Amino acid sequence: MHELSVTQSILDIALKHAGSRTVKQVNLVIGQFSSIVDDSVQFYWDIIAKGSLAEGAQLRFERILGEMTCSACGQVFHPGKETFACPSCASSAVRVSKGREFYMDSIDVE
Amino acid sequence: MCSSAAPTRVQVVERILSANDTIAASNRHLLDHAGVYGINIMASPGAGKTSVILKTLEALQGRLRFGVIEGDLASSIDTDKARAAGLPAVQINTGGECHLDAVMLANALPSLPLHDLDLVLVENVGNLVCPANFQLGTHLNVLIASIPEGDDKPYKYPGMYMGMQALIINKTDLLPYVPFMMDYFRQGVEILNPGIAVFPVSCMTGEGMDAWANWLVEKVRGNSG
Fold it and tell me: pTM, whole model, 2 decimals?
Protein backbone atom coordinates (compact mmCIF):
# COMPACT_ATOMS: atom_id res chain seq x y z
CA MET A 1 0.00 0.00 0.00
CA HIS A 2 2.87 2.39 0.66
CA GLU A 3 4.75 1.50 -2.53
CA LEU A 4 4.04 4.83 -4.21
CA SER A 5 5.83 6.84 -1.52
CA VAL A 6 8.64 4.30 -1.48
CA THR A 7 8.99 4.51 -5.27
CA GLN A 8 9.08 8.32 -5.13
CA SER A 9 11.92 8.12 -2.60
CA ILE A 10 13.82 5.67 -4.81
CA LEU A 11 13.50 8.04 -7.77
CA ASP A 12 14.63 11.06 -5.73
CA ILE A 13 17.70 9.27 -4.39
CA ALA A 14 18.65 7.84 -7.81
CA LEU A 15 18.39 11.23 -9.54
CA LYS A 16 20.33 12.96 -6.77
CA HIS A 17 23.26 10.58 -7.23
CA ALA A 18 23.05 10.50 -11.03
CA GLY A 19 23.56 14.24 -11.51
CA SER A 20 23.34 14.88 -15.25
CA ARG A 21 23.83 11.24 -16.23
CA THR A 22 21.18 8.78 -17.40
CA VAL A 23 20.16 6.09 -14.92
CA LYS A 24 20.12 2.62 -16.52
CA GLN A 25 19.63 0.47 -13.44
CA VAL A 26 18.86 0.94 -9.75
CA ASN A 27 20.16 -1.71 -7.36
CA LEU A 28 18.09 -2.10 -4.20
CA VAL A 29 18.62 -4.34 -1.19
CA ILE A 30 15.42 -5.36 0.61
CA GLY A 31 15.27 -7.64 3.64
CA GLN A 32 12.40 -10.05 4.19
CA PHE A 33 11.13 -8.08 7.21
CA SER A 34 10.89 -4.86 5.17
CA SER A 35 7.58 -5.16 3.45
CA ILE A 36 7.37 -3.89 -0.09
CA VAL A 37 6.03 -5.53 -3.23
CA ASP A 38 8.59 -5.50 -6.06
CA ASP A 39 6.02 -5.60 -8.86
CA SER A 40 4.10 -2.62 -7.51
CA VAL A 41 7.27 -0.57 -7.16
CA GLN A 42 8.26 -1.36 -10.75
CA PHE A 43 4.73 -0.46 -11.89
CA TYR A 44 4.83 2.94 -10.18
CA TRP A 45 8.41 3.45 -11.31
CA ASP A 46 7.46 3.12 -14.99
CA ILE A 47 4.93 5.91 -14.47
CA ILE A 48 6.74 8.38 -12.23
CA ALA A 49 10.20 8.05 -13.83
CA LYS A 50 8.76 9.06 -17.21
CA GLY A 51 10.36 12.21 -18.58
CA SER A 52 13.23 12.09 -16.07
CA LEU A 53 16.84 10.95 -16.55
CA ALA A 54 15.78 7.66 -15.01
CA GLU A 55 13.03 6.87 -17.53
CA GLY A 56 13.20 3.24 -18.59
CA ALA A 57 15.73 2.29 -15.90
CA GLN A 58 15.53 -1.23 -14.54
CA LEU A 59 14.94 -1.78 -10.85
CA ARG A 60 16.90 -4.72 -9.51
CA PHE A 61 15.83 -6.08 -6.13
CA GLU A 62 18.30 -8.07 -4.13
CA ARG A 63 16.14 -9.89 -1.60
CA ILE A 64 17.74 -10.82 1.72
CA LEU A 65 16.07 -13.75 3.45
CA GLY A 66 15.27 -13.32 7.12
CA GLU A 67 17.91 -15.00 9.24
CA MET A 68 18.07 -15.77 12.94
CA THR A 69 20.93 -16.90 15.12
CA CYS A 70 20.50 -19.10 18.18
CA SER A 71 22.40 -17.73 21.18
CA ALA A 72 22.30 -21.15 22.87
CA CYS A 73 23.81 -23.41 20.18
CA GLY A 74 24.97 -20.98 17.48
CA GLN A 75 22.68 -22.39 14.79
CA VAL A 76 21.89 -19.92 11.97
CA PHE A 77 18.51 -20.50 10.33
CA HIS A 78 15.67 -18.96 8.33
CA PRO A 79 12.64 -18.48 10.59
CA GLY A 80 9.54 -20.57 10.03
CA LYS A 81 6.08 -19.11 9.60
CA GLU A 82 4.72 -20.34 12.92
CA THR A 83 7.69 -20.37 15.24
CA PHE A 84 11.02 -18.62 15.62
CA ALA A 85 12.46 -21.17 18.07
CA CYS A 86 15.79 -22.76 17.10
CA PRO A 87 15.17 -25.80 14.86
CA SER A 88 18.27 -27.48 16.33
CA CYS A 89 17.89 -27.13 20.10
CA ALA A 90 14.39 -25.58 20.41
CA SER A 91 15.80 -22.66 22.39
CA SER A 92 13.98 -19.34 22.19
CA ALA A 93 17.19 -17.43 22.93
CA VAL A 94 17.23 -16.40 19.29
CA ARG A 95 18.10 -13.05 17.68
CA VAL A 96 17.35 -11.60 14.25
CA SER A 97 20.61 -11.40 12.31
CA LYS A 98 19.43 -10.51 8.79
CA GLY A 99 16.30 -9.29 7.03
CA ARG A 100 15.91 -5.62 8.07
CA GLU A 101 17.77 -4.26 5.01
CA PHE A 102 16.00 -1.46 3.13
CA TYR A 103 18.44 0.60 1.11
CA MET A 104 19.72 1.58 -2.32
CA ASP A 105 23.11 0.00 -2.85
CA SER A 106 24.11 1.61 -6.15
CA ILE A 107 22.96 2.93 -9.50
CA ASP A 108 24.30 2.19 -12.98
CA VAL A 109 24.59 5.38 -15.05
CA GLU A 110 25.73 6.43 -18.51
CA MET B 1 36.06 4.81 -28.87
CA CYS B 2 32.93 4.63 -31.03
CA SER B 3 31.20 1.89 -29.08
CA SER B 4 28.81 3.08 -26.42
CA ALA B 5 30.37 3.04 -22.97
CA ALA B 6 29.30 0.40 -20.48
CA PRO B 7 27.26 1.85 -17.63
CA THR B 8 29.26 3.12 -14.68
CA ARG B 9 28.29 1.89 -11.24
CA VAL B 10 27.85 4.63 -8.66
CA GLN B 11 27.88 3.55 -5.02
CA VAL B 12 24.90 4.98 -3.12
CA VAL B 13 24.22 3.00 0.08
CA GLU B 14 21.39 5.19 1.33
CA ARG B 15 18.27 4.20 3.23
CA ILE B 16 15.31 4.29 0.85
CA LEU B 17 13.26 6.41 3.23
CA SER B 18 16.14 8.74 4.11
CA ALA B 19 14.10 11.83 3.16
CA ASN B 20 11.38 10.78 5.61
CA ASP B 21 14.04 10.07 8.25
CA THR B 22 15.45 13.59 7.84
CA ILE B 23 12.05 15.18 8.41
CA ALA B 24 11.46 12.82 11.33
CA ALA B 25 14.69 14.12 12.87
CA SER B 26 13.46 17.70 12.55
CA ASN B 27 10.14 16.71 14.17
CA ARG B 28 12.11 15.28 17.06
CA HIS B 29 14.06 18.49 17.34
CA LEU B 30 10.83 20.49 17.44
CA LEU B 31 9.40 18.25 20.18
CA ASP B 32 12.60 18.35 22.21
CA HIS B 33 12.82 22.12 21.87
CA ALA B 34 9.28 22.44 23.28
CA GLY B 35 10.05 19.88 26.00
CA VAL B 36 7.37 17.51 24.75
CA TYR B 37 7.59 13.73 24.69
CA GLY B 38 6.02 12.17 21.58
CA ILE B 39 4.66 8.67 21.19
CA ASN B 40 3.49 7.00 18.00
CA ILE B 41 0.68 4.52 18.62
CA MET B 42 0.29 1.78 16.04
CA ALA B 43 -2.12 -1.16 15.84
CA SER B 44 -4.40 -3.06 13.51
CA PRO B 45 -7.90 -1.59 13.05
CA GLY B 46 -10.10 -2.35 16.04
CA ALA B 47 -7.29 -3.15 18.49
CA GLY B 48 -8.49 -0.27 20.64
CA LYS B 49 -6.11 2.61 19.92
CA THR B 50 -8.62 5.34 20.73
CA SER B 51 -9.90 3.53 23.84
CA VAL B 52 -6.35 3.08 25.14
CA ILE B 53 -5.62 6.76 24.56
CA LEU B 54 -8.76 7.84 26.42
CA LYS B 55 -8.06 5.43 29.31
CA THR B 56 -4.47 6.64 29.41
CA LEU B 57 -5.75 10.19 29.74
CA GLU B 58 -7.89 9.17 32.70
CA ALA B 59 -4.95 7.46 34.36
CA LEU B 60 -2.65 10.45 33.78
CA GLN B 61 -5.15 13.12 34.82
CA GLY B 62 -3.38 15.81 36.82
CA ARG B 63 0.06 14.30 36.28
CA LEU B 64 0.81 15.25 32.65
CA ARG B 65 -0.63 17.70 30.15
CA PHE B 66 -1.15 16.12 26.82
CA GLY B 67 -2.49 16.47 23.30
CA VAL B 68 -3.51 14.05 20.58
CA ILE B 69 -2.86 13.83 16.85
CA GLU B 70 -5.23 11.48 15.05
CA GLY B 71 -4.31 9.82 11.78
CA ASP B 72 -7.65 8.33 10.94
CA LEU B 73 -8.30 7.58 7.29
CA ALA B 74 -11.28 9.77 6.53
CA SER B 75 -13.39 10.74 9.51
CA SER B 76 -12.92 12.90 12.56
CA ILE B 77 -14.89 10.62 14.86
CA ASP B 78 -11.84 9.83 16.95
CA THR B 79 -10.81 13.47 17.19
CA ASP B 80 -14.32 14.36 18.34
CA LYS B 81 -14.02 11.76 21.11
CA ALA B 82 -10.68 13.21 22.16
CA ARG B 83 -11.97 16.79 22.18
CA ALA B 84 -15.02 15.70 24.14
CA ALA B 85 -12.57 14.38 26.72
CA GLY B 86 -11.02 17.86 26.93
CA LEU B 87 -7.84 17.19 24.95
CA PRO B 88 -6.15 19.49 22.47
CA ALA B 89 -6.58 17.34 19.35
CA VAL B 90 -5.59 17.62 15.70
CA GLN B 91 -6.88 15.47 12.88
CA ILE B 92 -4.70 14.36 9.97
CA ASN B 93 -6.71 13.09 7.05
CA THR B 94 -4.29 10.86 5.20
CA GLY B 95 -6.46 10.85 2.08
CA GLY B 96 -6.38 7.08 1.84
CA GLU B 97 -2.69 6.60 2.69
CA CYS B 98 -2.11 3.54 4.81
CA HIS B 99 0.28 5.19 7.27
CA LEU B 100 1.38 8.51 8.70
CA ASP B 101 4.71 9.85 7.55
CA ALA B 102 7.04 12.47 8.96
CA VAL B 103 5.74 15.22 6.64
CA MET B 104 2.16 14.74 7.86
CA LEU B 105 3.33 15.02 11.45
CA ALA B 106 5.44 18.08 10.63
CA ASN B 107 2.32 19.76 9.24
CA ALA B 108 0.17 18.80 12.24
CA LEU B 109 2.53 19.65 15.13
CA PRO B 110 2.22 23.46 14.84
CA SER B 111 -1.56 23.16 15.44
CA LEU B 112 -0.95 21.97 18.99
CA PRO B 113 0.05 24.28 21.87
CA LEU B 114 3.32 22.35 22.28
CA HIS B 115 4.81 24.63 24.92
CA ASP B 116 1.84 23.93 27.19
CA LEU B 117 2.12 20.14 26.85
CA ASP B 118 4.27 17.36 28.31
CA LEU B 119 3.16 14.57 26.01
CA VAL B 120 1.79 14.20 22.47
CA LEU B 121 0.11 10.95 21.50
CA VAL B 122 0.02 10.31 17.78
CA GLU B 123 -2.57 7.74 16.72
CA ASN B 124 -1.32 6.15 13.51
CA VAL B 125 -3.52 4.61 10.81
CA GLY B 126 -4.82 1.15 11.73
CA ASN B 127 -2.45 -1.16 9.87
CA LEU B 128 0.19 -3.72 10.89
CA VAL B 129 2.40 -3.36 7.82
CA CYS B 130 3.06 0.13 6.54
CA PRO B 131 3.46 2.38 9.61
CA ALA B 132 6.51 0.38 10.72
CA ASN B 133 8.52 1.69 7.78
CA PHE B 134 7.93 5.38 8.39
CA GLN B 135 9.61 6.98 11.38
CA LEU B 136 7.72 10.06 12.59
CA GLY B 137 10.29 11.54 14.93
CA THR B 138 8.42 10.63 18.11
CA HIS B 139 10.43 9.33 21.07
CA LEU B 140 8.61 6.04 21.37
CA ASN B 141 6.82 3.66 19.02
CA VAL B 142 4.05 1.83 20.86
CA LEU B 143 2.21 -1.13 19.39
CA ILE B 144 -1.21 -2.13 20.69
CA ALA B 145 -1.98 -5.79 20.12
CA SER B 146 -5.30 -7.24 21.24
CA ILE B 147 -6.36 -10.69 22.35
CA PRO B 148 -9.01 -11.33 19.62
CA GLU B 149 -6.41 -10.72 16.87
CA GLY B 150 -4.77 -14.00 17.80
CA ASP B 151 -1.43 -15.09 19.23
CA ASP B 152 0.31 -15.52 15.87
CA LYS B 153 0.68 -11.83 14.99
CA PRO B 154 4.40 -11.46 15.86
CA TYR B 155 5.10 -14.32 13.46
CA LYS B 156 2.97 -12.84 10.67
CA TYR B 157 4.05 -9.20 11.04
CA PRO B 158 7.66 -9.37 12.25
CA GLY B 159 8.51 -5.96 10.76
CA MET B 160 5.97 -4.24 12.97
CA TYR B 161 6.95 -6.17 16.08
CA MET B 162 10.61 -5.25 15.54
CA GLY B 163 9.86 -1.56 15.06
CA MET B 164 8.36 -0.71 18.46
CA GLN B 165 9.74 0.12 21.89
CA ALA B 166 6.69 -0.74 24.00
CA LEU B 167 3.85 -3.21 23.58
CA ILE B 168 0.36 -2.98 25.04
CA ILE B 169 -1.74 -6.15 24.93
CA ASN B 170 -5.32 -4.91 25.06
CA LYS B 171 -8.62 -6.69 25.77
CA THR B 172 -7.16 -9.11 28.31
CA ASP B 173 -10.71 -9.41 29.71
CA LEU B 174 -11.42 -11.63 26.67
CA LEU B 175 -8.71 -14.18 27.55
CA PRO B 176 -11.20 -16.66 29.07
CA TYR B 177 -13.23 -16.69 25.84
CA VAL B 178 -10.57 -16.69 23.11
CA PRO B 179 -7.89 -19.31 22.38
CA PHE B 180 -4.79 -17.17 22.89
CA MET B 181 -1.52 -18.77 24.02
CA MET B 182 0.20 -15.92 25.85
CA ASP B 183 3.53 -17.78 26.16
CA TYR B 184 3.64 -18.46 22.42
CA PHE B 185 2.79 -14.84 21.64
CA ARG B 186 5.37 -13.44 24.05
CA GLN B 187 8.08 -15.80 22.83
CA GLY B 188 7.73 -14.34 19.32
CA VAL B 189 7.75 -10.80 20.72
CA GLU B 190 10.85 -11.41 22.85
CA ILE B 191 12.81 -12.90 19.93
CA LEU B 192 11.97 -10.00 17.60
CA ASN B 193 12.38 -7.34 20.25
CA PRO B 194 14.47 -8.50 23.22
CA GLY B 195 13.71 -6.87 26.55
CA ILE B 196 10.78 -4.79 25.30
CA ALA B 197 8.36 -3.41 27.91
CA VAL B 198 5.01 -5.26 27.71
CA PHE B 199 1.76 -4.08 29.32
CA PRO B 200 -1.29 -6.37 29.33
CA VAL B 201 -4.35 -4.13 29.82
CA SER B 202 -8.11 -4.12 29.57
CA CYS B 203 -9.88 -0.89 28.67
CA MET B 204 -13.12 -2.51 29.80
CA THR B 205 -12.04 -3.29 33.38
CA GLY B 206 -9.14 -0.84 33.64
CA GLU B 207 -6.82 -3.67 34.64
CA GLY B 208 -3.15 -2.95 33.86
CA MET B 209 -3.71 0.70 32.95
CA ASP B 210 -1.92 1.99 36.05
CA ALA B 211 1.26 0.03 35.28
CA TRP B 212 1.30 1.41 31.73
CA ALA B 213 0.51 4.97 32.82
CA ASN B 214 3.13 4.97 35.58
CA TRP B 215 5.78 3.66 33.18
CA LEU B 216 4.86 6.36 30.68
CA VAL B 217 5.11 9.11 33.31
CA GLU B 218 8.61 7.86 34.16
CA LYS B 219 9.57 7.97 30.49
CA VAL B 220 8.26 11.50 30.02
CA ARG B 221 9.93 12.82 33.18
CA GLY B 222 13.17 11.00 32.33
CA ASN B 223 13.20 12.71 28.96
CA SER B 224 12.65 16.23 30.24
CA GLY B 225 15.06 15.79 33.16
Answer: 0.90
